[in-house]
Amino acid sequence: MENTEDNTPKQHTNPPASVAPADVESQSTSITSVLRRWKREDYLKKGQVVLRTIGFFFSLLSFIIMAANRHGDWKNFDQYEEYRYLLAIAILSTFYTIAQVLRQIHEFSTGKYLLPHQQLNLLDFAGDQIMAYLLLSASSTAIPLTNRMREGSDNIFTDSSSASISMGFFAFMAVALSALLSGYKLITQTYI
Amino acid sequence: MENTEDNTPKQHTNPPASVAPADVESQSTSITSVLRRWKREDYLKKGQVVLRTIGFFFSLLSFIIMAANRHGDWKNFDQYEEYRYLLAIAILSTFYTIAQVLRQIHEFSTGKYLLPHQQLNLLDFAGDQIMAYLLLSASSTAIPLTNRMREGSDNIFTDSSSASISMGFFAFMAVALSALLSGYKLITQTYI
């Protein structure tokens, strides 16, 4: 059984548990499993790009809506620490997600990686998970204040605040899903 | 090479990538790798029990401190939705963590599992991750209100509130770490 392509690295990582240890069979199954793994990693990367792009748009919206939320007197977002916190995290998340998307597109087009795979995957996961926690924390923090203001009066200031908070939550969901994918990539990485 | 113990299941999951496909060698390395995996899974389970026990104690403290936080007039926790939210999540987390710890101790002592491994691992991970998000959300929500009250006056009510919030954060950290372990267990599970 030497008619296999030579440019396929013959690694034996993770063959299905049901494979009999016969040499010929395991050789061919390990090659198909490697091909399957490559395809799966490709899907994962594309999924991450999509989720982070979604996260980027929602973060950007949250950031812009909150930053424009100045209507004079007590209706300025910067008088409330909750809204300042949300704005700060939305800005951070905007930069983080766009940086990750650009890095991944750069990797797709050139095939070059800024760091070794292992460190990249770790950074990916830690970054996504921490960003998800921050977005959730900032969005939930801003809710009670908005609620209390709306009991009094419902105006453009409170409406913008709620819009910004909702966008923050959507960004959280996208980034949290991306963190799941990153975690999966981190654990199933191959050490070549 | 038939002198291997018969009570060791001959699964070929995840041998190290450097193994040459010679039959004899791969047989013995796969057995040591299985033993190593068992030991690792054992460590993971123990780590989860420890982290969830820590999470249980902090949730319980957060719950008790907040529930006892009634000092008359405006100094009752139940007049503020933030504190009610934190109390609710602390109670939920207390029950969740103690249930998981008791379940795991039951598994250790009897070797019986309530559900198939795969479903258990999935439930474990989803539960831990959602609980971590809820704890973080509840703790961060309660901070600005407490901050604002402390600007006016610093009394036993605000002190108890901050104590309860801190305990909530510690519980979050323990449960978030447990979620990492659960995620690892979920992905590296064997499909026997």
TrEMBL record, chains A, B:
Organism superkingdom: Eukaryota
Record-annotated Casparian strip membrane protein domain positions: 44-173
Localization annotation: Cell membrane
Main localization category: membrane
Keyword line: Cell membrane, Membrane, Transmembrane, Transmembrane helix
Transmembrane intervals: 49-68, 83-102, 122-145, 165-187
The keyword Cell membrane appears for this protein: yes
GO cellular component, one term: plasma membrane
Protein's membrane topology: Multi-pass membrane protein
Ranges for region Disordered: 1-25
Family the entry assigns: Belongs to the Casparian strip membrane proteins (CASP) family.
PANTHER family in UniProt: CASP-LIKE PROTEIN 4A4 (PTHR33573), CASP-LIKE PROTEIN 4B1 (PTHR33573:SF57)
Record note on quaternary structure: Homodimer and heterodimers.
Protein name: CASP-like protein
Source lineage: Eukaryota, Viridiplantae, Streptophyta, Embryophyta, Tracheophyta
